[in-house]
Amino acid sequence: MSVKIIKAIVQRLFVLALLTAPFYALANDDKITATRYYTNFPQSKGNYNGISSASDGLIYYVLCSGDLDIGAQMYSYNPENDQIKHLADLTEAVGEKQIKAIPQGKSHVKFYEYEGKLYFATHVDFYTHVDGKEIMGIPPEGYLPYQGGHLLSYDMTSGEIEDLGVASPSKGGVLALTMDRTRGRLYGITWPSGDVFRYDVKAKEGKALGKFFADGEEGNGDRFQVLSRSLSVNEVNGSVFFANSTGQIFEYILEKDEVEKVTHENLKKDYFGTLTSRSMGYQWRQSIWSDYDKMIYGVHLETEYLFRINPETRKAEIIDRLASETTKRAGVNGYGVSLGLVFGHDNHTLYHISHAYPSAAEFEEFGPKAVDELRLKNHHLISYDLKNHKYADLGEIAFEGGSEPIHVNSLTLGLDGVFYALATIELEDGSQTTDLISFSNPAQ
């Protein structure tokens, strides 16, 4: 038998194997080794955004706390000397340490650098659950209610934190925040009512812009809407885009200083499935402004489709699916995009963290329970090159020894080219903590 015939047979057998393989057997099994850091904050739990790289080379982050007496803490990490520094107790920073109120237990937003300062905000992390719904924590006897999420600035030279005040008269926590770093203006959404606001950092003046999410996450029946976790600024003209769960797109018009509904486009796309009563529906999970092509990119939660909005035409366009290879091969939705979405230093490659469907090896290890066992683990780093229209699943993030980070909902890229995130980590005694992790880019 000739070599040519043998090659043809091998090729056909390979194709046949691909067509008949179980859907979960076609995974990218590459591992990205992560390093875990030890901030030593015992109350640390859960994180959403809360981390950013700054021009001084440091990584700034907040560890949250659901404790009634100890709130969130702010830190910096210096990659050059491998040192972690405690910067602030956020409850103390806003002057509430001694009043015995529900504390500033969380920061749910990134840090935004502007003229030597980092701007960010606080959020509540003490909740009450009623009929399966998470509501603002009801203060126990002897405690005051939550006093409202604050806007803050941190001077990177002096280390001074300035309290810019409560973000909204409704005294909700700040769930989403963005900044127009050309004009020095903050824009945000509060939880649970969904108030949209703006704040001019030079004039030190804010304004409530209205409600665009029915009654938000404190609403009942058809007045309940899951709130957006992200807004994005058009850096060209200062407009701001966000969406709600029904797919309506809204734009803040700088010249008018008000929000308008985009009337000729929406995000109610067949690609995104259907709206359920407790889902984020048709809005993005995370969004980001692109300096490369002056577009706003968003990733849908359940389907993980990457799409973009053209700020000039207000039209939305589906780009590609950023789910992991295992998720796409399995043909499933609902694994969900994290809040981790950043641009690489080339300015045209997006990096995204995906909660991935189990691989073949994981099905062998866990059997039919693999899906439930790994639902909050199995994080893959996904890249998408806008310039070359190229998707890649770069592999699964795991610690040396095989354990995995849990529920990663943050991501930043340091000046050193290393990715940093906040993740829940399983300890040897079976308990969990949340801390800083890092991992290199395997594509470099």
Describe it for me?
- The chain is mainly beta.
- Helix content is 9%, strand content 40%.
- It has an 8-stranded mixed β-sheet, with no helix packed on it.
- Strand 21 (295-300) and strand 22 (305-309) form a beta hairpin.
- The radius of gyration is 22 Å and the shape is globular.
List keywords for this structure.
444 residues; eight-stranded mixed beta sheet; globular; single chain; disordered N terminus
Strand order of the largest sheet: 24-25-26-27-1-30-29-28
Q: What portion of residues is helical?
A: under 10%
Radius of gyration from the alpha-carbon trace, in angstroms: 22 Å
- The total count of helices amounts to 5
Instruction: Kindly report the average pLDDT value.
Output: 91
Shape: globular
Q: How many runs of DSSP E, i.e. beta strands? A: 30
Q: Unreliable stretches, pLDDT < 50, 5 or more residues? A: 3-28
Structural class: mainly beta
Main sheet properties: 8 strands, mixed
How would the blueprint of this fold be written?
Blueprint: H1 3-20, E1 31-36, E2 51-53, E3 59-63, E4 73-78, E5 83-89, H2 90-93, E6 112-114, E7 117-121, E8 127-130, E9 133-136, E10 150-155, E11 161-166, E12 173-180, E13 185-191, E14 195-200, E15 205-211, E16 232-233, E17 240-243, E18 248-253, E19 258-266, E20 284-290, E21 295-300, E22 305-309, E23 316-321, H3 325-330, E24 337-343, E25 349-355, H4 360-366, H5 370-373, E26 379-385, E27 390-399, E28 412-413, E29 419-426, E30 432-439
Parallel strand pairs: 1-27
Antiparallel strand pairs: 1-30, 2-3, 3-4, 4-5, 6-7, 7-10, 8-9, 10-11, 12-13, 13-14, 14-15, 16-17, 17-18, 18-19, 20-21, 21-22, 22-23, 24-25, 25-26, 26-27, 28-29, 29-30
